[in-house]
């Protein structure tokens, strides 16, 4: 099975300098392009990307449909805007907003039930890596994050994002990233079987840039990238897309 490359931009609490060149440049791409703006800009960006190959995702969501959850957004609201993708369990949600694996799992399950392409982020901290606990940490995040999904794996995408590499300029080496991606695929096979594991897309995230994306995407088990900083300037994001497309051919 060939897994289609996905290049995803996570804008966090920022806006891109210009979205139009990304839209114009992507009519017949052989890969998937995704942008994830802040909630307040989903509608505006949706109008801009409407007839293009660029897909739109949210950076977070709540698992409840509605109720007394001040400041939160539900899947139903995202659906009404035509959003197809959602990022769940990003390291900033885990570490800045203290989201637990159990809460993340509820959101993942709801996202799949509602038909969203659901990107589950996993990643170890620097302390966990230095203490040689990183594989156990990732295994646990996967086990809980993917609990109760059963036959609904086709819309799951995993993003391996080592916390020490996010926004720091310190990328995992292609060798280390591939080692983790292979490990994640093995764990998915244990949870959901070999077929699911061979089909599932596993993105790498953590200081991906024009000058490191090629070697990362060349690895057998790296199927795309989740990009923060370098997705905010269209020249950089476009360049990454162009490099990724050459890998895909
Ligand atoms: C991210 O936000 O998911 C991320 C990987 O950020 P950066 O590319 O800036 O490290």
Structure description:
This protein is 40% helix and 16% strand. The protein is α/β, with parallel strands linked by helices. An 8-stranded parallel β-barrel has the order 1-2-3-4-5-6-7-8, surrounded by 5 helices. It is built from 11 helices and 8 strands. The protein has one domain: TIM Barrel, CATH 3.20.20.70. The model has no long low-confidence stretch (mean pLDDT 95). It binds phosphoenolpyruvate (PEP). The site of phosphoenolpyruvate has 14 residues, from strand 8.
Name a few traits of the molecule.
249 residues; alpha/beta; TIM Barrel; 8-stranded parallel barrel; 11 helices; binds phosphoenolpyruvate
Q: How would you summarize this macromolecular structure in one to three sentences?
A:
By secondary structure, this protein is of the alpha/beta class.
Number of domains: 1
Overall 3D shape: globular
Described by strand count, sense and barrel closure, the largest sheet is:
8 strands, parallel, barrel
User: Averaged pLDDT, please?
Assistant: 95
- What is the CATH C level class, in words? Alpha Beta
Roughly how many Å apart are the termini? 15 Å
Q: How much helical structure, as a percent, in the residues?
A: 25-40%
Here the CATH topology equals TIM Barrel
Rg:
17 Å
Spell out the blueprint of helices and strands:
Layout: E1 6-10, H1 20-24, E2 32-36, H2 42-49, E3 54-58, H3 75-80, E4 85-88, H4 91-95, H5 101-113, E5 117-122, H6 126-130, H7 134-145, E6 156-160, H8 174-192, H9 194-199, E7 201-205, H10 213-217, E8 224-227, H11 234-248
Parallel strand pairs: 1-2, 1-8, 2-3, 3-4, 4-5, 5-6, 6-7, 7-8
Helix pairs in contact: 7-8
The structure holds phosphoenolpyruvate.
């Amino acid at each position: 099975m060939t897994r289609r490359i996905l290049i995803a931009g996570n804008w966090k609490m920022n806006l891109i300098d210009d979205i139009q060149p990304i839209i114009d440049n992507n009519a017949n791409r052989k890969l998937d392009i995704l942008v994830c703006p802040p909630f307040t800009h989903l509608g505006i960006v949706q109008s801009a990307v409407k007839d293009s190959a660029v897909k739109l995702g949210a950076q977070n969501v709540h698992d409840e449909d509605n109720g007394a959850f001040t400041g939160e957004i539900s899947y139903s609201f995202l659906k009404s805007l035509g959003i197809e993708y959602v990022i769940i369990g990003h390291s900033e949600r885990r570490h800045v907003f203290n989201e637990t694996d159990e809460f993340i799992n509820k959101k993942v399950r709801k996202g799949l039930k509602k038909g969203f392409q659901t990107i589950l982020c996993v990643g170890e901290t620097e302390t966990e890596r230095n203490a040689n606990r990183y594989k156990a940490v990732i295994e646990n995040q996967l086990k809980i994050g993917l609990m109760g999904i059963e036959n609904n794996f086709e819309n799951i995408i995993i993003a391996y994002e080592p916390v020490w590499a996010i926004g720091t300029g310190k990328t995992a080496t292609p060798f280390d990233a591939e080692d983790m991606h292979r490990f994640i695929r093995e764990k998915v096979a244990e949870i959901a079987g070999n077929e699911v594991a061979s089909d599932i897309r596993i993105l790498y995230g953590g200081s991906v840039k024009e000058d490191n994306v090629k070697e990362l995407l060349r690895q057998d088990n790296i199927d795309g990238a989740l990009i923060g900083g370098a997705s905010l300037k269209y020249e950089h994001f476009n360049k990454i897309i162009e490099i990724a497309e050459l890998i895909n051919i």
